[in-house]
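Q: What would this complex look like in 3D?
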Amino acid sequence: MDFHFISPCGAKLYEVIPKWRIGKEKRNGTYGACFSVRKKYEVPESLTIMEAMEYSGYQLVRGCCCRNGFCGACATIYRIAGDRELKACLACSTKVENNMYVATLPFFPLVKEVYDIEKVKPTQQIMMQLYPEIYSCVGCNACTKACTQGLNVMQYIAYAQRGDMKSARKNRSTASCAACARRGVPRGFRTRRSRCSRAGSTANISPRTVSIWTFASKRSARENSRR
Amino acid sequence: MYTDPKILESIRKVEAARAENVKLNPARMNAEEKEVLLKTFHPDYRENQFTTLRIGPNKGGKVPLELAALLEGKPRVELSHPHLNTPDYDADVLIIGGGGAGCAAAIEANNTGAKVLLVTKLRMGDANTMMAEGGMQAADKPNDSPAQHFLDAYGGGHFAAQKDLLYKLVTEAPEAIQWLSDLGVEFDKAPDGTMITTHGGGTSRKRMHAAKDYSGAEIMRTLRDEVLNRGIEVVDFTSAIELLLDETGRCAGAVLQNMETKEILVARAKTVILATGGAGRLHYQGFPTSNHYGATADGLVLGYRAGAKLLYPDTLQYHPTGAAFPAQIYGALVTEKVRSVGAMLINAEGEAFMNPLETRDVAAASIIRECAARKKGVRTPLGDAVWLDTPMIEIKGGKGTIEKRIPAMLRMFSKHGIDIRTEPILVYPTLHYQNGGLHITPDCQTDVENLFAAGEVVGGIHGRNRLMGNSLLDIIVFGRNAGRNAGEKSKSVTTGALTLSHVAAVEEERKQAGLQNEMLSPRLLPDYTRKRD
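A: Here is my prediction, written as structure tokens for the whole assembly.
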């Protein structure tokens, strides 16, 4: 089974990269978050992406933790050669496929909104104040498509917009992998969705979206404990 | 997806017997039966897998081979480190480990007004807490009491628990639930706000509080969020490789290593909390593990070299139900809640061979016996296993119970083409929890002054076996205590010059004992890369 890494993580990696190819993603037909290198490995087909990386000699440092689909450390985007669609998954719980091009996204500049749980109220106003960017959602549903847990992300964003914490918190089976938020980063997610392309970067659900789930869940729990 | 004809044939036997099995309630084993079973089949009793330590505070004590190699291993730190007294970080309380115990400690230490620094090997929240599924015990219902909780846990731990620690655990449990609830953890509740509680293996009352089967993730996310909201300094991807003592032998900081650049950093602190967690990734006796990637017993090594004694390092918990099929999730945890909501353990012939709610050590030994001695296991590519008959849950609890109560399990198996609502799953024991660890007082103080410990790195709270739902409880109760005590203690401490003389002494002891072991310790991360000849 042929398997291609594009941006695996870990310090050791740099010793084995033959050369850097910055900004040539499209021409190569591959994609990397900040750099892109073609490197082909043959791996047994029973392996997960994470195991395939280790089988190929990479000792993981970033992008690996629970190895069981809970923690979201190993968010990964991939493309099957020739396929138009760029997909997102967790490397620990997705099996390799033939001619799979993989880019792990082990680092992401998350912004965490700071608040005092004793003082904030679960209202629409507080959502507008803390997470204004969710109101630029144009309903392209790319976040839902990117979800590694099969959750209806866009619907939850809609709940959050309305300040409906009770409904939004149902999303708490999230793995916090941020694939939904990241979907604005790799261009591939956008190319086939004209509405998002037109709306441009302002419409991208920001990295902060992810912390909404915790926020909504916590606020809702507080309400529910007062009889 | 099951494709092997032998496995499919066995499934048909399980299905045929299901209607009868549902009605069964196999008798629990008596004390004598349990003892014989454990001594014959539990991995803790395989004498050739243990050795005696030749150096350190537990010299002469029994530990697993893999742990002995690390405790007697070669320190990573260079003794001639020149920058010890020009530290890169300076804090009142240094917390090593960013899981549930570390974060709970950080919040409480922050409450005392101390300047807190939390360093963690992976990201904050990358910990076994995140993966805990089943729930958290606390005696807060009218028919229950902390005394009842104490008896369950004490008996379940084979009467070996440190009574003062266990007393603290059970008496502070209801408060821990309240604290989490106030921070915003959404436990399962009835419409009127009453907590929903269930049984776990070895409990005599329903006192398991859960958040679906994402209990740990829910708790971890909330704690992590709170740590960030408070602006506590957190350093990710930085592990401690050695503790630092001052010239009077009190703990006063740690040598850190950036996991990626390998840069060595020094953190000075007035008090230090070890909250480094467990050891599943050492794969004792070759068992798979349900633990996260960083569970390599680092805290035991750090504490041991600094002079802290270990308690029960020879006892590990093998969770009876680790996933045994498919290979991609081999060893992953199938929560005990699957059994507490109604699934039973069934052998290849479709026979219910034990009560599903025996304590974990007994259940694990019983499954090993079924496979090894009675030859009634199901052959899978990675070894024998038994069935956990999940479709029973919906027969007992009604349609939709699985989706509602154990959605994570449903999702985990459906990714691999197995619908646990209609098909049973294959399970085998997996290395789950380190019962032993650093010896502490009820104030979380180890044998080294100013060194505190909390969480799985501590030994003795649960004795020789831990009941389900008591570890989420122990990280919160002891995490908070450690944070509070370390924070308060830091106010009266003035740190002297930092030294590594204890490491030099260990090196000397190694030499005296003739140890040739060059394995670097702590381990930091497991190495799963393929080795070519």
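A: To summarize the key features: Chain A touches chain B through 52 residues (CB under 8 Å). The first strand of chain A starts at residue 2 and ends at 5.
Q: Very helpful, thank you.
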